[in-house]
Design brief:
Oligomer: single chain
Order of helices and strands: HEHEHEHEEHEHHEHEHEEHH
Structural class: alpha/beta
Number of helices: 11
Radius of gyration: 19 Å
CATH superfamily of the largest domain: Periplasmic binding protein-like II
Number of strands: 10
CATH class of the largest domain: Alpha Beta
CATH topology of the largest domain: D-Maltodextrin-Binding Protein, domain 2
């Protein structure tokens, strides 16, 4: 069996020695949670300009991407919106959980696109869904945002009453789109999604105490390259972290 920690330590050390002109001329394929779409576009542009790093990004729900990685999809890095899918792939032998790093956090909010008085200021969560209509949500079966939302609704005693009204979406960006198009009057999405949309207003913030901590976890996939380790180091660097904060993400806490 390959000694993952020793191999990764050697690669990490090699990655730190790469200069701005020494990143290998290869295309790095990154499988990433859909909610990271805009911020990764910014970060990847920075890496292209400063280090000549060419990155191909595949975006979908973390669960959908994890299933592809499990079946052998040719990705170099996987970024999940929760730790469960990282642990799942570790159990399947597709990555080493010890090599995974937390790169950002997030919060859940309730949004609407309706132009009415209720959208002028946040209201208590228990009153948020009094208005009729369906509620857009990431599919709790595999979308981390939906899993966190289900935990929050269960903890607040709202799940059973609201379940028939839910409109599950393939990922959190799709849930946001349902609200933006006014296909549903309400939606539960990440704060970063709401911040980067001109079409919705936050009407409630979901207390973090109602669900598991939201961590975005990045892990290299075998065969692990120096470029993949360089990329993970860059995601944790000050420039990338500033981009995450500007996009509405939160700093990560210790895992």
């Amino acid at each position: 069996m390959r000694d993952w920690p020793a191999s990764l330590a050697a690669l990490a050390l090699a990655a730190l020695t790469l200069s701005s002109t020494a990143v290998r001329a290869e295309v790095l394929t990154v499988y990433a949670a859909a909610s990271l779409a805009k911020v990764l576009e910014t970060v990847h542009q920075q890496l292209a300009e400063e280090h000549g790093l060419e990155i191909q990004t595949v975006l979908a729900s973390s669960g959908a991407l994890a299933r592809q990685v499990e079946r052998g999809a040719p990705a170099d890095v996987f970024i999940s919106a929760n730790e469960a899918w990282i642990a799942h792939l570790g159990h399947k032998g597709r990555l080493s959980p010890e090599a995974a790093v937390a790169i950002a956090g997030n919060r859940l909010v309730v949004v609407t696109a309706e132009d009415n008085e209720i959208a002028s200021a946040p209201i208590p969560l228990t009153q948020t869904f009094d208005a009729p209509g369906r509620i857009a949500i990431g599919d709790p079966a595999h979308v981390p945002a939906g899993i966190y939302a289900k935990q929050a609704l269960e903890a607040s005693g709202l799940w059973e009453d609201l379940y028939p009204r839910l409109a599950p979406a393939a990922n959190v960006r799709a849930a946001l789109a349902l609200v933006e198009r006014r296909a549903t009057p309400r939606g539960i999405v990440y704060a970063s999604d709401a911040k980067n949309s001109n079409a919705v207003t936050v009407i409630a913030e979901i207390p973090v105490s109602l669900h598991e901590p939201i961590h975005y976890i990045a892990s290299p996939l075998p065969p692990v390259s120096e470029t993949a380790m360089f990329y993970l180091d860059a995601l944790q660097g000050p420039k990338a972290q500033t981009s995450f904060r500007n996009a509405g993400f939160t700093p990560t806490e210790s895992r």
